[in-house]
Write a structure and sequence with these properties.
402 residues; alpha+beta; 3-hydroxy-3-methylglutaryl-coenzyme A Reductase, Chain A, domain 2; Alpha-Beta Plaits; ten-stranded mixed sheet; 13 helices; 39% helix; 21% strand; globular
């Protein structure tokens, strides 16, 4: 096999890593990755009309710093690629942490990531006079899938109804509808379809009331998202060699497995559905950079981190994210800096949503590896102190002033 060329490292400058010259060099690196100019990331104003349909009472655009982490090597369903990952954040040390984790992925030959399941769910609820009425309605729902599929076909050419499963909660019926959505998140389409379908069922079964968001999973961390998944379910893995872990992060595989076990004990007591370390950090930063609905981080960050020793004494690491709600078309994904950031990733337009989700899975894995290692080596606080660059009494590179 011909080895892949080594990608350029991200340019940095000791002493003043925010001067216009070094920022321009990094932007040029991203323009090479994107295959063209990135005028909005460079500071060009976005036309107000670009926000039509995305916001009301527009007054301007928020400016959030965007940095790049990487390079990150990942084997996706669309092939192997090495990417620079744009992250919009104001949390010092975070981009550096993810970059270190991406270096660990590279030492292991790159991450491997795949979408394992697709399906956006909606959960309308119907209320009946009694339990027998709800049970009778469930029987009607089980025979209505073909008709409801035609309803969905009448409102979209991209989405499709996959299943419609009734669940009984006393005298109430929760109708779990699952849709494919193409390369969009598809929330508006799915909500429209859920409204029409629940209305049809209510009329045919004499429901006393119906609620389109009856069992409201929207933008809410929940156990159902962890078990059943919602949107795109992704798994990513890597094997990090022992020596690389020691050289780059100053910890051993045994250290990492031990701290993961301790965290699992704490998570169990908390009763949390999020068993990752900092998925919300990386996901929210990339979602903002790439024009996604960042409020979905509440569901998207639900997941599981698994660390273990291989037979050779290296570190096996994987992350499972069952409910990534992202898209590469629609919403804000095609506008301004969002479009440019997706271009840097090579994830613009149709046919790219799964690849984008897989890149997100690999990035989350990188961030969790780096942060776990910082906890093990007791370097977490020191890193934030050193990279707290906007504080009085510090030079522009983050080091204490004399």
């Amino acid at each position: 096999m011909t080895p892949r060329p080594t990608p350029p490292r991200i340019p940095r400058e000791r002493g003043d890593d925010h001067n216009p010259s070094i920022v321009a060099r990094r932007l040029a690196l991203c323009e090479g990755a994107a295959g063209g100019a990135l005028p909005y990331l460079a500071g060009q104003s976005v036309e107000p009309a670009a926000a039509r349909g995305n916001i009301e009472n527009l007054i301007g655009f928020a400016q959030v710093p965007v940095g790049i982490a990487g390079p990150m090597s990942v084997d996706t369903s669309s092939g192997e690629r090495t990417v620079y990952v744009p992250m919009a954040t104001t949390e010092g040390a975070m981009v550096a942490s993810y970059s270190r984790g991406m270096r660990l992925l590279g030492e292991g030959g790159g991450a491997w990531a795949r979408v394992t399941r697709e399906g956006l769910s909606q959960h309308p609820m119907l209320e009946y006079a009694d339990v027998p009425g709800a049970l009778a309605a469930a029987d009607v729902a089980r025979t209505s899938l073909a008709a409801w599929r035609e309803v969905v076909q009448g409102i979209t050419s991209h989405g499709e109804l996959i299943s419609a499963d009734p669940e009984i909660l006393g005298r109430r019926l929760v109708l779990r509808l699952i849709f494919t959505t193409g390369d969009a998140i598809g929330i508006n389409m799915a909500a429209h379809a859920a409204d029409l379908i629940s209305q049809d069922l209510a009329e045919r079964t004499r429901a006393r009331a119906r609620y389109v968001h009856g069992q409201d999973v929207e933008k809410r961390a929940n156990a159902r998202a962890l078990v059943e998944g919602r949107g795109r379910s992704v798994v990513a893995q890597v094997v990090v060699p022992r020596k690389a872990l020691q050289d780059v992060a100053r910890v051993t595989p045994e250290d990492m497995v031990a701290v993961a076990r301790a965290y699992a004990t704490g998570y169990a007591q908390l009763g949390t559905q999020n068993w990752t370390v900092q998925a919300a950090n990386g996901l929210s930063a990339i979602l903002v950079a790439c024009g996604q609905d960042v409020a979905y981080v509440t569901e998207s960050a639900t997941g599981l981190l698994d660390l273990d020793l291989t037979d050779d004494g290296d570190l096996f690491a994987s992350v499972t994210l069952p409910s990534l709600l992202v898209g590469t078309v629609g919403g804000g994904s095609g506008q301004g800096t969002a479009h440019e950031c997706l271009s840097i990733l090579g994830c613009v337009g149709d046919g790219q949503a799964n690849t984008f989700a897989e890149i997100l899975g690999a990035a989350v894995l990188a961030g969790d590896l780096s942060l776990m290692a910082a906890f093990c080596a007791h370097e977490f606080v020191e890193a934030h102190e050193r990279l707290g660059r906007n504080r009085p009494g510090r030079d522009r590179d983050g080091s204490p002033s004399a």
